[in-house]
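for the record, two folds in this file. i put them one after another cuz i was lazy. first one right below, seq on top, structure tokens after. the second one comes after a little note so u can tell where it starts
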Amino acid sequence: MTERKGTAKLDYLRKIEIDVQEKWEKEKAFEHDAPSTVGESNNKNKYFVTFPYPYMNGRLHLGHTFSLSKCEFAVGYQALKGKKCLFPFGLHCTGMPIKACADKLKREMELYGNPPQFPDEEEEEKEKEKPKTSDEIIIKDKAKGKKSKAVAKSGTSTFQWDIMRSLGLTDGEITKFANAEHWLEYFPPLAVKDLKQMGVKVDWRRSFITTDVNPFYDSFVRWQFNTLKERKKIKFGKRYTIYSPRDGQPCMDHDRQTGEGVGPQEYTLIKMKIVEPYTGKFKSKVFYSSGMKGKSIYLVAATLRPETMFGQTNCWVRPDMKYVAFETASGDVFISTSRSARNMSYQGFTKENGVVPVIMEILGQDILGCALSAPLTSYKIIYALPMLTIKEDKGTGVVTSVPSDAPDDIAALRDIKKKQALREKYGIEDKMVLPFEPVPIIEIPGYGNLSAPLVCDELKIQSQNDKEKLAEAKEKVYLKGFYEGIMLVDGFKGQKVQDVKKPIQKMMVEKGEAMIYMEPEKQVMSRSADECVVALCDQWYLDYGDAEWKQQANEALKSLETFCEETRRNFEATLAWLQEHACSRTYGLGTRLPWDEQWLIESLSDSTIYMAYYTIAHLLQGGVLNGQEPSPLGIKPEQMTKEVWDFIFFKTSPFPKTDIPKVNLQKLRREFEYWYPVDVRVSGKDLVPNHLSYYLYNHVAIWPQDNKKWPQAVRANGHLLLNSEKMSKSTGNFLTLSQAIDKFSADGMRLALADAGDTVEDANFVETMADAGILRLYTWVEWVKEMIANQNNLRTGPANTFNDRVFASEMNAGILKTEQHYDRMMYKEALKSGFFEFQAAKDKYRELAIEGMHRDLIFQFIEKQTLLLAPICPHLCEYTSGLLGKTTSVTKSSWPLAGPVDEILIRSSQYLMETAHDLRLRLKAYMLPPKSKKADPKPPAKPSHCTIYVAKSYPPWQHSALSLLGKHYKSNKGSLPDNKVIASELGALPELKKYMKRVMPFVAMIKENLEKNGPRVLDLELEFDERAVLMENLVYLTNSLELEQIDVLFASEADDKVKEDCCPGKPFCVFRSEPAVCVSLVNPQPCNGLFSTKIDVRQGDSRDSLIRRLCKVNRLIKDMSKVKLMRYEDPVGGPRRVPVLGQEELGKLPISSKSVFNINLEEKKVTLADNGLSVDIGDTLVYLVQ
């Protein structure tokens, strides 16, 4: 971005914002309590909006701000609609990130001192290059090229200390952050400060932080979990979960640096026993080594298609890949990659959980050619063959080969069969390859029983290196095979593939030929920089897979307003696949599980119904974030028993045994009953698959019989780009909330946030737009001040001119349109109709109202504009409201009422603007020099006059075509037939024969306009009087085109060409230059900057027409009525005399309004006719400005 030249306008807006925020603070403008009596009435006229509390491990940034701005704008609008609004704001501290960062700082101080002296980059690189131990294998997922959100935001710093320094903290301050609780004291107050600077309409009395540091919130979460357990929603057992070995606990979405949303992927682990005859290499390097003797040795391959194992012809191993042989719990030896062995060790495959007892490391080339006994295949022995494309980041590094149904396998098998040199290179004998042919196991409609060879032949795949073609082949075969394939093998013959997958897997597992194996779908890195595995863990989990609970969540979704179909589809997909969710962990911050205190409740589980806590937080905590000061109602945390919480949140619960006064408990219940349910929750779309779905589940679990407490609406938005690029500290493309306010002001930033985007697609905050916003807002306030100062110069009396009526109608239409956009939470659109287009309507009025703008309309406009913009830019609107003399705050004002909208009048005004534009283009074309071969042809003289022809009806051929189209449109219920049908019908009409070349282009134009403007384009006449509109705006048109005169005539009075080219709504114009004689106009008044000028005098001109012409030439003359036109008594000698100071009128006579100028072109003379006398005026006239 270019550097700003100055910040005066920005400073001006910031000063207004600071003053307005102080005023709101004093008035407690956003603090609202429930009425003292609440009926059971459904129409409580309240609006409760929430935003997922942000995580307190840093300053709030523009991404947070974009999402929460939707809440902010909604509250501003709903308050204007007369609703009592509540926008509370909590601050989240539960989970791993804070603890992980604090522990990282501790480690850095232990290793490198305080303040730490880190190794330089070269040493670091050497460290990185050292081979990692098997416990720290980090596999780079090549599919994930882009940095995750967490990585992008932490910048390029590898050390936590450096990250803290980048936040502007000194070494002395950073030391304190090694204690996790310090984060809870430091960042939450900064978040509150930044949000207050933004001017959010938050009731700060209801704010709090999470974790057991806050005794009231801790008690609330304990109550929630006790209730869920009572209702059998929480269970205990061994479950597969994404797990961080370094942290020693499950790694949920919010604990991840990369891999958000990734779950465990189930594979069938196929056991292929290495049997005799052993290869020489295998014998010497593997079989005879200590630890292997007497043991069964298996190559293990992970497959997603156990039903295809009947077709195995070989298995694939990568020659240069490192494998490990490790002992399993049963005493067998498995050969796989280290990464997969590490996963298996957390799934009960080894004797000790998380420990891989490695016997030896093996290179793939050492096991090539091994004979294998594989389950289900019709071949008694198959062999391990080389494949160079096996990846290390998925599966076990050993791959089963089913060439009948896998394009990759048939391509590789054909390669090794064709290439003897390849076989010799890896010591593969002919008997290991040549006898093996694909085995038909599945019949696929259209592809037969050997689908992979068929498709590879069709696509002319030559080798396993034809990657693009192989990808296409897989796409064709795999899905069709799974969903439409029919099994051909004994025991499963005639059954669908998708129906036998699980039974075949179960059969192999029961026979000991296979095992269930899990690994993450993609690489997952925890925030402690550990590559996660899938572990079989003892854990407490929320059983989101429970059929009855899932059904209830779907019921809640049916009545949920999602504002767009994509959000609804995301919810439906999530509820369909969601199963168990581990809600407990051992590391981090949070609330302890009340019945098993070794466990902490994780961050996605303590944040599902806390919106209910907002309703009463102010009465328990009174705005003290950690809840550690006396409660406003004198309640102590230990008094908040399960029965007390039940009484507050369940209206059928009896009054509990407690020493809390009844009046206080009833007040708490009243607050909850009044504010609940949440009317809208705003969030990023990435929270739909986790937090927002859990939000639905937990509400139906806690209030199963009271659907009036269930969420009403969820508004999901996309991520925020900054200047069309992903926000990232490492690239410098990043803004915190406080930086954005300093750079653009609060209202300038809010304007750009509203303009950034509305849908679930990624939005874009553009800094140049924010800068332009500062200018727009500043200009708007200055214009309001100017109007207030000059109000006595504005027109008064009846506001009934054409442009007055249009402006009033456009204001009313703008209000209605903006209201619809605010209702749908479409703030970009609301800003467009309620500010940009609203301002454009005012600018148009100012331009067209030649007679002057009407005072009442201008002040109505200022008032309405202030209210339409108030939800988005409240500070400036509060200030503007004050300038208008309003004593009540704009936050307590009412949404403007829209008067009648005359759509036809608005369209007639649009017609006027389009006609003026068209006339300007035609005038420009008229002024172009004629196309000529002669050098430098002269352009025509500027015309002085114009005749505009308007048509009452279409020319006959167009009339016939339109009539036919109108008939079809009615009979086809709002659509037109194909052009061929129209052309044949029109061709049959005798009156159109000679116009057929022009008819179809005309039809095409009408069709296009029909899509844009609706059925009125088929009308045979205009809905307004075209001539009357032009006549009423003749002065504007004449001035706009800088012409002397415009005449408006009906096309029926013109020649045939004009009649042909003129139709309703498309006037025709003819420009011409009237002859003239040039005279000088002099001004003898001293020191006024008004100079001599030359103007043309035409036959029949009046005094006023000359004055008007003079004012066009001399822009310093603002008021025509103050100009006095005079002639010399002596037209020859008068101009030669020196004027006498103070006696400017000496020797001159005034020209009356009844005088008419006549011209003699031959003699270049001008005479003046007045009262029957004709006098020669010479070549000079005098003008005086009073």
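(here's the note) second protein begins now
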Amino acid sequence: MAGNEWINGYLEAILDSQAQGIEETQQKPQTSVALRDGEGDFFNPTKYFVEEVVSGVDETDLHRTWLKVVATRNSRERNSRLENMCWRIWHLTRKKKQLEWEDAQRVANRRLEREQGRRDATEDLYEDLSEGEKVDGAGEIIPPETPRIQLQRNSSSVDIWSDDKKENRLYVVLISLHGLVRGENMELGCDSDTGGQVKYVVELARALARMPGVYRVDLFTRQICSSEVDWSYAEPTEMLTTSSADDCDGDETGESSGAYIIRIPFGPRDKYLPKEILWPYIQEFVDGALAHILNMSKVLGEQIGKGKPVWPYVIHGHYADAGDSAALLSGALNVPMVLTGHSLGRNKLEQLLKQGRQSKEDINSTYKIKRRIEAEELSLDAAELVITSTRQEIDEQWGLYDGFDVKLEKVLRARARRGVNCHGRYMPRMAVIPPGMDFTNVVVQEDTLDGDGELASLVGGVEGSSPKAVPTIWSDVMRFFTNPHKPMILALSRPDPKKNITTLLKAFGECRHLRELANLTLIMGNRDDIDELPSGNASVLTTALKLIDKYDLYGSVAYPKHHKQSDVPDIYRLAANTKGVFINPALVEPFGLTLIEAAAHGLPMVATKNGGPVDILQALHNGLLVDPHDQEAIANALLKLVSEKNLWNECRINGWKNIHLFSWPEHCRTYLTRVASCRMRHPQWQTDADEMAAQEDECSLNDSLKDVQDMSLRLSVDGDKPSWNASLDPPNSNDPVKQIMSRMKQQPEAKSKPEVQQGKKQGDNVGSRFPVLRRRERLIVLAADCYDEEGAVDVKSMVTMIQNIVKAVRSDTKMAKNSGFALSTSMPLDELISFFKSAKIQVSDFDTLICSSGSEVYYPGAEEGKLLPDPDYSSHIDYRWGNEGLKNTVWKLMNTTAVGGEARNKGSPSLVEEDMASSNEHCVAYLIKDRSKVMRIDDLRQKLRLRGLRCHPMYCRNSTRLQIVPLLASRSQALRYLFVRWRLNVANMYVVVGEHGDTDYEELISGTHKTVIVKGLVTLGSDALLRSTDLRDDIVPSESPFIGFLKADSPVNEITDILKQLSKAGG
């Protein structure tokens, strides 16, 4: 609060209002403050103001009101306004203290929950160790303190990425969804979504494409066809320039090699949307990106894969929205995922709550913060590796998340190295890899007279000499200075309160020696009119201008209104030519890219000691760290570097000598080394088998452009499929199709599932029935959760729905042609078959059955009523699945924790019992005894994450069952599996659901498939037990051309009409 001039003015106004008894009030010890004197009618808030307000209130929101107060001439009206203002301050203070108390409680509760989770996990793990291991590993189980993550470029324990990796020819996928992304003339700063992240991901894509062993890099973002933005953002594909022909290795170039921006349309096609509005359309992006990746894997397979698909080496999500997308894509393709958070939701929420200006509800409404945090937690569930810029990001930001615990991560990593079972517990690895920089345009100049000559030419220092061509921005800056030859102190940031520009100005203004020795240049973004800027930015600029006037800094401070991105290197060069210093005084700096840019241009630095600059200084040794709140320390550090030329030269040389540590080649080498140490995964099935068998009848490339609604590079995803009925036994015994079918003979016999076809006749009949799904042009998925109060199937509603949908499809000749049906349910296979028998429905009417909430996939066999399990699905979803460890933990949690996460009393009856009939290898099922007392899904998932367990829990069958399936399994992900496995066109999938359903119901609605919501079909669902805060509007779009509505009693012709209407959507 020190130095805020308006507070002094406030106190003066109180004194000017001739309030009586102030001294008496200050001297008398009172337990409460009287706002009015008993004898008069005037305002007397001094004691309260000094003791409570000045020391505890952020005055920013009240500043404008205060300006109006001091402008009031009428004494009585002025006093009244002062009183009202003080009451406002009092209420703000009370609210802030309440929020601080709530925050302290929340932090304490989280600490207790984390400690309990870690204790439960380590107790379970400890039981597995032998007596010798318990003694040897006792120090590992609960480490005494958080391990220090060292900033290391190379690790001796891993194979460093080098030029001998050329033969790898990798395909890398990067995702950055929000903002305006293009390769040239980036509009950085045009809005809050188009900033450093956009520049980083574009440069990362370019740099990775130059690395040996990397063949192609795709950077996915959103396609925007809006008149509000430039036409270039509507281009489906943009090739990023990689390197000159001299730099390219002939073996690495190819028709599809290099780096590309791939723009996928999702959400409203004609609008530019801020990132907070994109959440409901994430699954649309996933389907579009998946279509492109499938196409590209096939194309690259033909070019460099010897006919076999080339799958992505890694899928890397940037920020929460892209992390959510990358998790779904990684699960569908079974390839590793990497995450970079850039800015984290929990950290932002903590900061906003501490400010006390907004409630949690207001913060969530503005920033969609809860949806963002959940996306970050889901990203942690799926990520193999999380890349951060600094250690501070790991310890102080990711440490806030349920899905990451530094201590537990160390324990699990130690067990994994020793080959000890972790019972499905997992923590992602964190790697500190600072962002790279492009130094190709930076010219390292030794101390010469060139810089002085340019400056002399600019200011006319040599009579008769011809002026040199100097950058325009130099003139724009130098015109502010009385003596432009002084060393320049340079600060470059947007006018944000967190950047602490006002403290820098005060430090400069109050240090006479510093003012005499140096000039100060403030590059504070671009502006035309301060009043048109956001309130926070306008406030900073207004305060800065007032401080310049207060300290009479005219002629010593430059603050140009405009600059271009291309001017920034010239600004650094100007400061270096004057032997100046770069300063970043931010209160907290997550990384500090400008510090590296400045060092590359030969500028020593003074930087905040909070955040990334600590790591940068340790690497570069080119400056000093300061407390950003200490004006005197800032002034002394600047004075030291400006006045001590030997120190200045030493810092300058150190910066140049060590700057290669932050180059893009070094960043990419470390990046690829870290990724190579991940658990490499890729689809196990031979997806090219069907292509080889169907070459003669495959549709042409141009005819299949419609299949993906222009969501990719306009490549085929298979159009019409050939018939498999012509031959039961392909003539070539080495046929890949036959190899796949032979694997089905090796499936272990399921004793509890007598209807599943087994035995030696299985292989003979597979040829005519099993591949029928991949020949479908259209798939109708029935996923309505029709159950009664007790969780039993509502046979009447279910049968009526199935019959009406089938009749509607078959009533239209065009639609009936080559359409198939699938049933997706939480019922186990045995119960589903019993339902079919009671309803007299033939199993063969369906091309596939998705059972037990997506944990099993079956296809009809040749014999009537027989079913074949998918031979690859079980291994596909097995990732991070810990069946036995999960059972023990869930049983304990469900019977000791109630609604809201509160502990239940000891001796209370159990709330769940294991449902053996519904359980299988990849589904742990429980019967719910009292649904009113069980915890919600978000609470359960949080507690499982705290214990290192990654899975997909859900309530189903009207909250009478709890089913927990693997992380990669769900009913919606099973549909994507069919898309990838059999190249089904997701745009031609029609998913039929009710208005309510199981807690995975929301996941079935969004996407590029068509969704039919049948109103009145499902009256009882499990939705209420999903989460404590309703986030449906952030998951399901309120309006979408892909969603249609029917009534439960709609006639067949209306069903047909809505299916036809939806078939035209997205075309």
